[in-house]
């Protein structure tokens, strides 16, 4: 019987790695069969086209590659990782914690499409493509870290740059990231994602506070509440 797939989502720098690592470690410490995956899978050759895109080799603006083409790059990387790294584990009952998933295409690629019905058409296409046609599992729960763009910028400034000082074409474009955040709020509501408001009383909630909220939601999903 398949296990569970839990996705931690949000815009760039909102705390996904921090929270997904913490969650996976806590579940493992509780003796559960857990695996953590993250996307893009930069270490794998399967992410070559994603890396070329984010490095600006197809154009320096996100919209230089349309939502459908860019989504296909990311989907191919995910399929390779699923087949090689976690399909068997998941189908045999393992719990998979994903830092980003198909849901990142919903946030960052759907943001390129501003008119209706084009955006809904794209979202329907993406669902059918990744889950029905390509056979990736549908998440049991998507937890959306609602961290506004200014707060994400603050967190990313405080972090050592992931790529040795070089920002990718999404990170270089603060207007695009702000637009992705607005789109993420819309998509989260459409798909019933669990939304965590990461700001309270004008400040960013602590890592521990956000973790406890995530843990309580996930405990219900895995039947441990
Ligand atoms: N709630 C928080 N309060 C304070 N600092 C935080 C919080 N959450 C994360 N951080 C810090 O913010 C930085 C960015 O967090 P993290 O790397 O987890 O984000 P991310 O969403 O995975 O980033 P990316 O989208 O670039 O992969 C890190 O230095 C992390 O320690
Ligand atoms: C998995 C995935 C990612 N993206 C976007 C989201 C980010 O802007 C970049 C990846 O950068 P990170 O900071 O290294 O996480 O790519 C996307 O558009 N679609 C996806 O499926």
The whole-angstrom Rg is: 17 Å
Strand fraction equals 5-15%
User: Could you name the CATH homologous superfamily?
Assistant: P-loop containing nucleotide triphosphate hydrolases
CATH domain class name: Alpha Beta
Short description:
The chain has helices spanning 16-29, 48-54, 67-91, 102-108, 118-133, 149-157, 174-191, 207-221; strands at 4-9, 34-38, 95-99, 141-146, 194-197, 199-200, 203-204. It has 225 residues and is of the alpha/beta class.
Task: Explain this structure.
The chain has 225 residues and is an alpha/beta fold. It has one domain (4-221): 3-Layer(aba) Sandwich (Rossmann fold), CATH 3.40.50. It has eight helices and seven strands. The protein has helices spanning 16-29, 48-54, 67-91, 102-108, 118-133, 149-157, 174-191, 207-221; strands at residues 4-9, 34-38, 95-99, 141-146, 194-197, 199-200, 203-204. It has a five-stranded parallel sheet with strand order 2-3-1-4-5, with helices on both faces. A two-stranded antiparallel sheet has the order 6-7. The protein binds adenosine-5'-triphosphate and the ligand Cc1cn([C@H]2C[C@H](O)[C@@H](COP(=O)(O)O)O2)c(=O)[nH]c1=O. The ligand Cc1cn([C@H]2C[C@H](O)[C@@H](COP(=O)(O)O)O2)c(=O)[nH]c1=O binds next to α4.
Features:
225 residues, alpha/beta, Rossmann fold, 7 strands, binds adenosine-5'-triphosphate, binds ligand LXEULUCI
């Amino acid at each position: 019987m398949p296990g569970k797939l839990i996705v931690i989502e949000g815009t760039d720098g909102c705390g996904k790695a921090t929270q997904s690592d913490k969650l996976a470690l806590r579940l493992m410490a509780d003796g559960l069969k857990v695996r953590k995956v993250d996307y893009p899978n930069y270490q794998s050759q399967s992410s070559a086209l994603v890396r070329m895109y984010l490095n600006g080799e197809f154009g320096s603006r996100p919209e230089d590659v349309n939502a459908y083409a860019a989504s296909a790059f990311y989907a191919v990387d995910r399929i390779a990782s699923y087949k090689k790294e976690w399909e068997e584990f998941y189908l045999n009952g393992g719990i998979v914690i994903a830092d980003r998933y198909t849901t990142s295409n919903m946030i960052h690629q759907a943001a390129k499409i501003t008119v209706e019905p084009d955006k809904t058409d794209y979202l329907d296409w993406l669902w059918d493509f990744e889950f029905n046609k390509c056979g990736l599992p549908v998440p049991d729960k998507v937890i959306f870290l609602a961290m506004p763009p200014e707060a994400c910028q603050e967190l990313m400034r405080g972090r050592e740059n992931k790529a040795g000082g070089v920002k990718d074409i999404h990170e270089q474009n603060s207007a695009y990231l702000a637009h992705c955040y607005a789109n993420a709020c819309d998509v989260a509501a459409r798909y019933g994602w669990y939304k965590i408001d990461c700001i309270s009383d004008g400040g960013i909630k602590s890592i521990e506070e956000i973790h406890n909220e995530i843990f309580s939601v996930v405990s219900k999903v895995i039947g441990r509440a």
